[in-house]
Amino acid sequence: MEDSSLQLMFHGTKIAQANVIVNYPGVVLKTTTRIENPNFIILDLEISKDARPGNIPIVFEYQREILFSVDYQLKARADGSKDRMGFGKEDVIYLIMPDRFSNGDPGNDSVPGMLEAAHPSNPNGRHGGDIRGIRDKLDYIANLGVTAIWLNPVLENNMPVYSYHGYAVTDFYRVDPRFGDNESYKSLVDECHGKGLKVIMDMVFNHCGSNHWWLKDMPMESWIHRFPEFTRSNYRSETAMDPYASDFDRQKMLTGWFDRTMPDLNQHNEILASYLIQNSIWWVEFAGLDGIRMDTYPYSYKDFMAEWMQRVLKEYPNFRIVGETWQQKETHTAYWQAGSPVSGSYHSYLPSVTDFPMQYALKDAFNEQEGWTTGLARLYYVLAQDFIYPDPFSNVIFTDNHDLTRFYSAIGEDLNKFKMAMAFMLTARGIPVIYYGTEILMTGDKSNGDGFIRQDFSPGEWQSSVVSQQEEALEYLKTLLNWRKDSEVIHHGKLKQFIPQDGFYIYFRYDDEDAVMVIINKNKESKIPDLKRYQEVLKDYRGGKDIITGKVFILGEGLEVPAETAVVMELE
Ligand SMILES: [Ca+2]
Ligand SMILES: [Ca+2]
User: What secondary structure does DSSP assign to 233-253, as a single string?
Assistant: First the structure.
């Protein structure tokens, strides 16, 4: 590794009394740190470039007698590991909640020693989905035309109830046995790579699960944030940059617990900080990851997050991390992106942010009547503010996710609106995410509870009344996605938009060689847009082909766009 230091934490009854000896060529035990809990001892090792792969014996002795010895395996770094390319603008990400996607192994639904057993009829219970199930469906996923998968966290969540979502981690180094194990996760990544799919791991630094073994024997008082009585975060992460924020509000956002079962980790504790940083790098290296999605990004100390980013980028300069920056406004979102012009002296080093303002606009654009600031103008205004992002094309965009009302429900189960929104998301700027089941029009309203927006994916059990619409949606997305996969101009081209007018929203993606014209006709009747306005682009072209219908258009012959339809035209 580029960084030659390695910190190891050992836990055992009164282990701090032991003397520790490391004798291995190229490895030096620099410091042995004893912390306030005598059941912990922390070793700082220096691994020189000359150290060979093998087992490092770590010997614990007391009064000159050997108590025990532990072998730490030093592995060779995989060839090309440093140069791996993370996910990027050419990708579309498929988001999967592992417990709810596919149950490939009913034998692991309930596992002895794990507190929560499967209960598929309970919306908040575990339903049995697993890594085997995802591996079985990789052909389906690859055929959709997406190029990456992001799984909600797969690490152990040994909590008594409501553990399926994965965000209450109880062991940062172990895949939950109800999903599989570390090896099966690694196999999933290998198989994805074989099918041209990248893998993004969901990680959580802000909190752990209250059943994490740390909580039973706290390493240090400062390990987590504690209060005389339960204190919840206020979830106003805008306090991170609000110039008028009170210390009270900002502290509560940062240090309050995310939930009763989610103690807030103190990343200003240097040992914990090392633990989290090393853990993330270990997973990239062990599993062969292409990206990380970091949960609740603004809720961890931002100086620590910047340090983490720099450590990861030192090991993997082309790696990609997206931070979940759930902010209400564009400016607050842009604050978090590397090189932000609106972050003052703060440098995040974070390449990608989650674009929630775009999600709000996508929903409103198709639900609202057209107006100066409403309807399609919502999308126009979001894009018109892109100058505050150093790299808006790296924003991760989405119509919904595991925390939001399913998009098809949010737009009144209207297939035309659905298609227009998908066409926009897959051709405008950003790295799109498709939440599992979107392609078959899964519904679910968050106001009924999170279980209803995370229902079991069951394409085999389509309701006969809407099956034709589901098939139509699936075909529509497959066509767009598989075309996007090879469309260089969508991946890296520029964007030019024209003010929405007369129910039309028209924009172009273009570079020196190619251009794509996207026409969204929100009118309830078919209409011919007046193309005079677009001459600055169209003057170089004779016509084009709609990649969705295959229909050929000749410019100058009157381009009739059907009601409530998006045309995605490759210009020729
Ligand atoms: Ca299972
Ligand atoms: Ca926090």
Answer: ----GGGGT-TT--HHHHHHH
pLDDT in tens, 37-63: 999 999 999 999 999 999 999 999 999
Ligand 2 centroid to 475 CA: how many Å? Answer: 43
Say whether pLDDT at 465 is over 80: no
Helix (H/G/I), strand (E/B), else coil: 171: strand
Give the number of whichever ligand sits closest to the CA of residue 99: 1
User: Annotated active-site positions, please?
Assistant: 295, 324
β-pair partners for 565: 521
Q: How far is the CA of 460 from the centre of ligand 1 (A)?
A: 18
Q: 110: CA distance to ligand 2 center in Å?
A: 32
DSSP alpha helices (H): ranges in 439-534?
467-485, 488-492
Could you tell me the distance, in angstroms and rounded to a whole number, from the CA of residue 458 to the centre of ligand 1? 15
- Kindly report, residue by residue over 218-232, the tens digit of the pLDDT: 999 999 999 999 999
Given a contact cutoff of 8 angstroms between Cβ atoms, the answer to whether 216 and 263 are in contact is no
Q: How many angstroms is it from 480 CA to the middle of ligand 1?
A: 32
Ligand with smallest separation from the Cα of 111: 1
Distance, in Å, from the CA atom of 480 to the CA atom of 427, rounded to the nearest integer, reads: 9
CA atoms 565, 568, 571, 572: torsion sign: negative
**Residues less than 5 Å from ion ligand 1, measured at CB:** 103, 105, 108-109, 128, 130
- Which ligand number lies closest to the CA of residue 105? 1
Dihedral, CA of residue 430, residue 149, residue 263 and residue 278, to nearest 10: -100
d(CA 242, CA 234): 14
Question: Hey, is 466 helix, strand or coil?
Answer: coil
Strands 148-151, 198-203: pairing kind = parallel
**CA 61 / ligand 2 centre spacing (Å):** 38
- Other beta carbons within 10 Å of 464: 6
**Contact of 553 with 561, CB cutoff 8 Å:** no
Of the candidates 223, 198, 199, 226, the residue with the CA atom closest to the CA atom of residue 212: 223
Compute, in angstroms, the gap from residue 420 CA to the centroid of ligand 2: 38
- Mean per-residue pLDDT of the chain: 97
Quick check: pTM over 0.90?
yes
> Beta strand pairing status for 171-175 and 19-22?
unpaired
Ligand nearest to the CA of 302: 2
Residues whose Cβ atom is located within 5 A of ion ligand 2: 206, 254, 264, 299
The amino acid that residue 515 corresponds to is: A
Residue 362 to residues 74, 358, 399, 400, 417: CA-CA distances in angstroms?
49, 6, 7, 10, 10
| Average pLDDT rounded to a whole number, residues 63-78 | 95
- The answer to whether 396 and 322 have CB atoms below 8 angstroms apart is yes
Q: Which region holds residue 556: left if phi is over 0, alpha if psi is between -120 and 50, else beta?
A: left
326 contact partners, CB below 8 Å, separation of at least 6: 237, 296, 298, 354, 356, 403
Residue 346 DSSP label: -
pLDDT at residue 467, rounded to an integer: 83
